[in-house]
Amino acid sequence: MSHQDLVAPQEHAFDYADLIITYLKQLGIECVFGVPGGAIEPFINALARSERNGGPKLVIARHECAAAFMADGYFRETGKLGVVCSTTGPGATNLITGVASASVDKSSMLVITAQTALPKFGKRSLQDSSETAIDTVSIFRNCTKYNALVSHELQLESKLISALMETYQAPRGPVHISIPSDILRMPYGHDNPNAHINYLMNKASLEDTLAVEQLIEEIIKVNKVVIYLGHSCAGAYQQIETLAETINAPFVSGPMGKRWVNEKHPLYYGVYGYAGHRSARELFKNDDIELILAFGTSITETGIGGLSSDLLNEKLIHIDSSVESFSRSPMAKLHVCGHLNGIVNRLLNKISQQSWRRTWEGIELECNKNILGGYAELIDEQKCISDDIPIKPQRLMGYLSTQLPEDTRFFIDAGNIWAWATHYLTTSNNSGCYRIAMGFGSMAWSMGAVIGSAMASPDKPHVCLIGDGAWQMSSHEIGVAVDNNLPILFIVLNDSAYGMVKFGQRMSNAEQVGWKLNQINFALLAQAQGADGHIIESPKELMALDVHAFFNKNVPTVLDVRIDSNEIPPMMDRVKSLQEGAVFLTGNNEIT
Ligand SMILES: Cc1ncc(C[n+]2csc(CCOP(=O)(O)OP(=O)(O)O)c2C)c(N)n1
Fold it and tell me: Which one of 75, 128, 353, 375 has the lowest number of neighbouring Cβ atoms within 10 Å?
């Protein structure tokens, strides 16, 4: 909001909308993302009052779906809570894709939608969203952990607290409360909330101690262990790495777990699953493996779900902080529920007491350093340093892997960039700075998410990698980055196509239809939107960029990179799975 917008209209009694914001303030939330108008206005007014007093402020998105993606990005950066709001009817329905994405990817998010005023329920007022109209509460049911209509003002506080508690507990996910506009503006009666909820930040750490003991017994019996890291390994990597080193266990990750690992660690064999590495696949073909320890995974199609059930049946131990994900691994020999850090620490204590020596002696476990400094085996790795024009996407990944600061926050959109980044983008940062949304797989996720993250940490380098199709779905959101002086670097992989669709159709011998897009000058478009923009046509132009200068500006930059549209991304798994309607992948993503 600008300063003119923040002039106080009149004296105001503390109302229920103010109460919600007081709770958000307790949780240290700085931003609420949304689009104003209609029935949500009492909440928007409360946010204006809050911003004047140094509390959470409104960040205005251009579309509610992007606002939800922003809230997801804010959560991923801060680990706190993403908050998004919308008006009734179309505002709420526009949110759905963003909330569904957060649900599948397990992001903490509070979704506040306005509801029709109580006396107008069912009277077909404009944007009626009550249960006899376009019932927005039912629409959110399948993509939220907690979902409630506040039908009396005295319910609001307890329903809000229930929602906040739910979203902070594993498995994380969005919660929704639908609040009639008349309740939002009702006076609360006093100026302070009834509860202090900071303790919600301390997650409960329940641990299945019996299963942990069994886990220790299983590990004591064997020598050859492989470790797999999934999406939910936040904060546990250092201990898992120490465990791997202590027992000399090679480790792999899923495409989303990649963000928790140091890819330049010699025991790291790369990504298993979508667009993964031959080194990781070969590792699992080793008959001598005795145990697979899978940490923080929901056993998804794009990750370890692709392993043959034989291997999983006999050898899998599934360790996660939520029992919910065990329903995906009925074949496991053991389920261990608890805080990953705590479990690994107990294992390490036990192992050091026994001074174990683990060995893979006699087994070929060859992994050489690749051209980007990692140990995963890359397809055609020379392309990562190719000077060919047009620019090879592999070359762009090589550039990003070697030229950007280690703490760069990468946001990867859906499209071919999923495969390019999964396979080639190589970093040693293991603190979750590589961000991808592969659960729901919505195009344009990265555009909102990078903005939400940069709102939380504007001084950290932020890069969004996105195809030209997804960019056209969401490029208007760049206005939010311009308004907020965010120096985000947007890199558009311009191939004038829905490239993933193009290659998917080709690889599966289907009709070649609907993938062509018109050639657009995205640099010019960016300039028209108040950002900086450049077209990049050769590796030489890429290398000449002063990328650090981009991060020190007060506007975003768009690089319209004209990539070689004939390069085939390593995505054969996805094609096979779509063809077969398979639940699990084959684990073989080589293009044949
Ligand atoms: C919201 C949404 N609509 C459709 C899809 C299906 N889809 C996946 S990738 C893709 C094409 C992406 O094209 P682009 O953004 O240009 O990236 P490219 O694959 O060319 O690199 C489509 C249409 C999707 N994942 N999400």
Answer: 353
Residue from 95, 96, 471, 500 to probe ligand 1 pocket by mutation (most atoms less than 8 Å from CB): 500
pLDDT in tens, 213-246: 999 999 888 888 999 999 999 889 999 999 998 8
Q: What are the tens digits of pLDDT across the range 154-185?
A: 999 999 999 999 998 888 999 999 999 999 99
Spacing, Cα 452 to ligand 1 middle (Å):
21
Helices 16-26 and 41-52 cross at an angle (nearest 10°) of 50
Distances (CA, A) of 499 to 58, 309, 471, 561, 570: 36, 32, 13, 14, 13
Q: pLDDT per residue over 393-416, tens digit each?
A: 999 999 999 999 999 999 999 999
- pLDDT score, position 582: 40
300 within 8 A of 105, measured Cβ to Cβ: no
Kindly compute the dihedral angle of the four CA atoms of residues 409, 412, 417, 420, in this order, to the nearest 10 degrees. 50
CA 390/CA 561 separation, integer angstroms: 9
C-alpha distances (whole Å) from 273 to each of 284, 381, 562, 588 are: 12, 19, 28, 8
Q: Tell me how crowded residue 117 is: count the other CB atoms within 10 A of its CB.
A: 18
| Residue 508 · residue 579 · CB < 8 Å | yes
Reported as type and span, the H/E element at residue 562 is: strand 557-562
For residue range 277-322, list pLDDT tens digits in order.
Answer: 999 998 888 888 899 999 999 888 777 877 777 777 779 999 999 8
Rounded CA gap, 319 and 333, in Å? 11
Pocket lining: 493 vs ligand 1, CB cutoff 6 Å:
yes
3-state SS class at 123: coil
Are the CB atoms for 475 and 525 separated by under 8 Å?
A: yes
Find, among 159, 193, 196, the residue nearest to 18 by Cα: 193
pLDDT 10s digits, 420-450: 999 999 999 999 999 999 999 999 999 999 9
Q: Does residue 536 contact residue 522 with C-beta atoms inside 8 Å?
A: no
> CA-CA distance, 349 to 351, in Å (whole number)?
5
Distance from the Cα of residue 540 to its chain's centroid: 32
β-strand 82-86 against 31-34: which pairing, if any?
parallel
Ligand 1 close to Cβ of residue 567 (< 6 A): no
Q: Pocket of ligand 1, candidates 94, 420, 443: which has the most ligand atoms within 8 Å of its Cβ, to mutate?
A: 443
Give how far Cα 503 sits from Cα of 42, 45, 416, Å: 48, 48, 9
**What's 408's DSSP letter?**
-
Q: CA dist 494 to 108, 289, 344, 523, Å?
A: 33, 43, 44, 11
What spacing in Å lies between the alpha carbon of 499 and ligand 1's midpoint? 8
Contact 252, 328 (CB under 8 A): no
Residue 588 CA to residue 205 CA, distance in Å, equals 37
